[in-house]
Amino acid sequence: MSRRILVLGGTTEARSLADRLALDGFDTVLSLAGRTASPARSVARMRSGGFGGVAGLAAYLRAEKIERCIDATHPFAARISTNAAAACAQTGVPRIALLRGAWQPVDGDRWIFVDDVQAAVRLLPAMGRRIFVAFADGLAPLAALELEFVVRRAEPGPVDLPGARVLVQRGPFARDAERDLLKTERIDAILAKASGGDSARAKLDAARNLGLPVVLLRRPAAPPGPSAPDVASILAWLA
Ligand code: NAP
Predict the structure, then answer these.
(1) Whose CA is nearest to atom 40 of ligand 1?
(2) How many Å lie between the centroid of ligand 1 and the Cα of residue 79?
(3) Are 28 and 124 in the same domain?
(4) Phi, psi of 120 (to 5 degrees)
(5) What range does the domain containing 194 cover?
(6) How far apart, in whole angstroms, are the C-alpha atoms of residue 192 and residue 49?
(7) Does pTM surpass 0.90?
(8) Which of 28, 32, 75, 202 could link 21 by a cystine bridge, Cβ 3.0 to 4.6 Å?
(9) 152, 169 in Cβ contact below 8 A?
(10) Is residue 189 part of a domain?
(11) d(CA 183, ligand 1 centre) in Å
(12) Which comes out higher in pLDDT, residue 40 or 152?
């Protein structure tokens, strides 16, 4: 019987990885939090919804006889990663994290890293009037600013920022289209998560091209343990 693998997902990378593992003959389950109404399908089996904290995930690992766990969640999804580390330690299930490479600035980038949205609130007024915000959660502190916000989210839904213009667009994004968007929307500065990886990088290249400043939220620290930057390294770990 093939090995049973749990992929914690919610990202494009997780789905690609789960597809690849299933096609390679691993008995693969792709787990989603259940936030997206119609998530892209995977060749792997899919399950949806929280496990119920560390205890719930540990119970799931045991009940489903999971032999390996791959944490391929978004770098800002800190709770599930911490829970996975604890549940895998409790149950003795080997775990690895698929970690996107961090973005590195190049000549012409005007990036400022901050720890949270509250810190961005102190910086943004000096950067202009119209701010492009590339995520839709935790925006309440921005309401204190008398600025115009264009917020992009992947799914239709409420945005906790009264008066914001909301765009529903799903990545991956291309640099030229991002450049057009920033120009059309007359954007003065960008607020984004420093997620890393390829699919969300285009807005930073477009910002450099237009000379716009970018405020980036630092990634939360990943729990300690093994990590791999790509699917090939995960396959090597499984072997
Ligand atoms: P989070 O704060 O780390 O997790 C909150 C709770 O959601 C977890 O405690 C867990 O519930 C459940 N959960 C999260 N990911 C899950 C998964 N893959 N399978 C089953 N349950 C999961 O996560 P979040 O920031 O709300 O993100 C939710 C999902 O969206 C994640 O899967 C993440 O990969 C994806 N995502 C997040 C971001 C972001 O910026 N945060 C961006 C793009 C995609 P229980 O404790 O009940 O198990």
Answers:
(1) 76
(2) 7
(3) no
(4) -65, -35
(5) 111-217
(6) 26
(7) yes
(8) 28
(9) yes
(10) yes
(11) 33
(12) 152
For a pLDDT cut of 90, what percent of the chain falls above it? 91
Q: 182 C-alpha vs ligand 1 centroid, how far in Å?
A: 29
- 228, 187: one domain: no
* Residue in 8, 64, 74 to alter for ligand 1 test, most ligand atoms within 8 A of Cβ: 74
8 CA distance to ligand 1 middle (Å): 9
* Domains: count for the chain: 2
Are residues 50 and 76 located together in one domain of the fold?
A: yes
181-219: pLDDT as tens digits? 999 999 999 999 999 988 899 999 999 999 999 999 999
Ligand 1 pocket, Cβ-based, cut-off 6 angstroms: 8-11, 31-33, 35, 50-53, 56-57, 73-74, 76-80, 83, 135, 193
CATH number, domain of 191, equals 3.40.50.720
Do 40 and 71 have their domain in common? yes
Query: How many angstroms does the Cα of residue 195 sit away from the middle of ligand 1?
Result: 14
10 and 96 share a domain? yes
* Residue 74, token pair as written in the block: 């978004």
Closest CA to 186 of 210, 154, 161: 210
Contact at 8 Å (CB) between 142 and 161?
yes
Give the model's pLDDT for residue 36. Answer: 86
Residue 116: pLDDT band (50, 70, 90) is very high
- Residue type for 203, please? K
DSSP 8-state class, residue 16: H
Domain membership of residue 105 (yes or no) is: no
- Residue 6 token pair: 């749990």
Residue nearest atom 24 of ligand 1, based on CA coordinates: 77
Distance 80 CA to ligand 1 centre (A): 6
pLDDT tens-digit map of 1-42: 469 999 999 999 999 999 999 999 999 999 999 988 889 999
Give the per-residue pLDDT at 2: 66
